[in-house]
Amino acid sequence: MVYVVGHRGAAGEQPENTLKGFRYALDLGVDYVECDVHLTRDGHLVVMHDATVDRTTNGQGAISALGLDRIRSLDAGEGETVPTFDEVLALVAGRVPLLCELKGSGVEEAAVAAVNAHGMAEQVIFTSFNLDRLAAVRQWGDRYRIGAILPNASEFEIARAGALGVEAIGVRYTNLCYRILAQAHDAGLQVRAWNPDTLAEQQAMIALGVDGISTNRPSLLLGYLRSLSAASRPAKLPKQRSRAPQRARA
User: Fold this and answer.
1) Is the pTM of this model over 0.90?
2) What are the structural domain ranges in the chain?
3) Cβ distance 21 to 10 under 8 Å?
4) pLDDT at 149
5) Quick check: 170 and 127 in contact, CB under 8 A?
6) pLDDT of amino acid 105
């Protein structure tokens, strides 16, 4: 059975990259949650996908040009604030692994330091489109877990990811094919379909043979997987009622 990643929490169902979204995904029963981290002007890690706050908040400006207090004052959707990386780490600690996409220059060292401070090196997988960025994380030791995002993975990229010690590659689901699956599996890498958000797309990825699926709509996928699990269970036979012993006639 494939594993399920709640992308940016559950970006198609709740405000993305918010504590509300992450709690929702956890309550659904995802196997992993995924977030993105940027550095603020004053050196704090905040969880947001874009380099600016414009799309997902009621504010404007580049994260790198804004201080933490200003960013925390913004509405990230439904009254949610932009979470810090520390808050997300505390929320998922001991529950599910976290895929942490490294965004912006200089974020690697700060993210590794935060994970160390929480004692969560085994629970966090650092991801990036940039293999050089993953190599920077790897230089701090083999105990740090890394994963690559390769939208249309080439044989060269797969080989380099394997050499870096990447656990899995995330590939855009529209580009996935048997060739990429075979090359990745031969290199010892798992393959995660990146963001199919309709049930038909998710079912196609399962049929293809991916190891995991990242999606903005985890409720669809989890509901389907649970229906498959329920259908595969043997039917329970009704319990036979015990018959009371008959009394002997006098």
Assistant:
1) yes
2) 3-37+91-228
3) yes
4) 98
5) yes
6) 83
| pLDDT digit string, tens, across residues 102-128 | 998 889 999 999 999 999 999 999 999
The H-or-E segment that residue 249 falls in is none
- The two tokens of residue 99 are 């895929």
The DSSP symbol for 216 reads S
Nearest Cα to 135, choosing from 160, 106, 169, 170?
Answer: 160
> What distances in angstroms separate CA 231 from CA 9, 192, 225, 236, 250, one per listed residue?
28, 25, 10, 12, 53
* 49 catalytically annotated: yes
CA distance 10 to 193: 16
Kindly name the residue from 44, 49, 118, 185 that is annotated as catalytic: 49
Q: Which two tokens stand for residue 111?
A: 């993210």
98-137 as b/e: b if 16+ CB within 10 A:
bbbbbbbeebbebbbebbeeeebeebbbbbbeebebbbbb
Q: Which CATH class is domain 3-37+91-228?
A: alpha beta
- What is the DSSP secondary-structure string of 41-79? TTS-EEE-SSSBSTTTSS--SBGGGS-HHHHHTS--STT
Q: Is 185 a catalytic residue?
A: no
Helix (H) or strand (E) holding 145: strand 145-149
